[in-house]
Amino acid sequence: MNPKPDPRRDIPALSELLDSEDVPPLIVRYSRPVVVQALRKVTDAFRRDPPEPSIDAAAILRTARERLEAGELDRLRPVVNATGILLHTGLGRAVLPQAAAAALGRLDRACNLQIDLSTGKRGKRNFQCERLICELTGAEAALLVNNNAAATLLILAALCLGREVIVSRGELIEIGGSYRLPDCVTASGALLREVGTTNKTHLRDYEGALTENTGALLRVNPSNYRIIGFSQRVPLTDLVGLAKRRGLLLVDDLGCGALVDLQPYGLPREPLVRDSLAAGADIVCFSGDKLIGGPQAGIIAGRKDLLDRIRKHPLTRMLRVGKLTDMALEQTLRLFRDPASLSKTHPLYAMLAATPDDLRRRAEAFVRQIGEWPGISIVIEDGFSEMGGGSLPGVGIPTALLSLRSSVVSPLDLSRRLRLREVPVVARVQDDRVVLDMRTLLPDEDAIVSTAIQEAIHG
Asked: Is-contact 225 241, C-beta < 8 A?
């Protein structure tokens, strides 16, 4: 009986594969080294686990092409956010203002990151950002790090090493990625002292916890959850008074870090950075990519003498931001010098400023423009957007929705097809339909969505 032929003998040589007429277009798109690497990985995989009954060049090229396309899908690229979550953590949180994006586009050359152009000598990093933060908040000094968790860690490591930090149990937050405040305090070298209960903490709880080793009172804004009902939180002014009487530091971790009042946008009042400092907080920290709507960053602001101590800590260099963050944040902060124009210059505030009537009119124009397509039904519905990004939990923002139902593809499949486009459209599946929220669509994205829907249904 003749032995069964080994299919691995049919694997073509790499040079033969590269001579195939199907390869040049792949090289144009992905580059020769990348295509060669993909072909080698496929042939190596076929040698380890040969498919039946034989291996030919077409199968290898097809598999290599699929690998290359899958790699392209994973690359970081712009998407259309139709979820209705304004600060969608999975989609990069805030949409950068055009001024910030344009400034980043100009960084294809050297920049004056750390040189004083007037003297030609070494200058201070992040100077303009820190100046703008002081201008906008009333702080004496400011410092940038790579996120707000890093800001909290650095403050405690520099100012409270080996000393107790008193925190209300109702403020021991956990945020995305399993980051927990108690872990941060421990990692900083400070000692956590919990006071009060989950739902109620009184000033007397803080007073009773003070010892000779107390270094600071830490107040944390629970920006990604709310405790309602039978609850109580000590006002900032009372904590400031206690800290001043006992010669302690008051650190206010604001989380979101609002620079402008959100109430004109129909939202609940969020603590303002300026108000916290004016009330007497020694140090505040907050995010650059939430309610400021800039790049990911952590901002520390407050007393100059304390900021000077923080700058000297070794962690400061380890946690500092680079030129891209510095440039994007500077351009974003400049927009807050004219709060009245934010709805025109800042994408986040433009989304917040749009009224439900504005969004419904836009949705109606969208439906009229695309007309009727076989296999798809598009209905305009009322709904709610949300801020997201750990901001304003439980606050629904009235909006207009495009509700899609198809007789051709299921909602899950339609949602998947929209996501797998060259410019992905990320929607949500709800009650057996695909829902697209008009609030988070940028002004120039209607045409992208229209084409995406048509091609997702009819190919």
From this structure: no
With b for 16 or more beta-carbon neighbours within 10 A and e for fewer, the 293-330 pattern comes to bbbbbbbbbbbeebbeebbebeebeebbbebebbbbbb
Helices (H), 312-439: 314-319, 323-335, 342-345, 347-353, 356-370, 411-419
Residue-wise DSSP of 327-359: HHHHHHHHHTTSGGGHHHH-HHHHHHH--HHHH
pTM of the model: 0.90
Question: Contact, 97 vs 341, CB < 8 A?
Answer: no
Please write the tens of the pLDDT for every residue from 74-85: 788 899 999 999
Asked whether 189 and 196 are in contact (CB, 8 A), the reply is: no
Enumerate the β-bridge partners of residue 253. Answer: 220, 285
Separation of alpha carbons 456 and 361, rounded Å:
25
The alpha carbons of the chain give a radius of gyration, in whole angstroms, of 27
d(CA 313, CA 326): 20
- Collapsing DSSP to helix, strand or coil, 7 comes out as helix
Rounded Cα distance between 143 and 153, Å, is 13
Burial letters for 105-114: b for 16+ Cβ neighbours within 10 Å, e otherwise? eeeeeeeeee
Query: Residue ranges of the chain with pLDDT lower than 70?
Result: 1-8, 51-54, 176-177, 459
CA-wise closest residue to 318 among 127, 112, 130, 146: 146
- Distance CA(113)–CA(330), nearest Å, equals 12
Whether the CB-CB separation of 298 and 148 falls below 8 Å is answered with yes
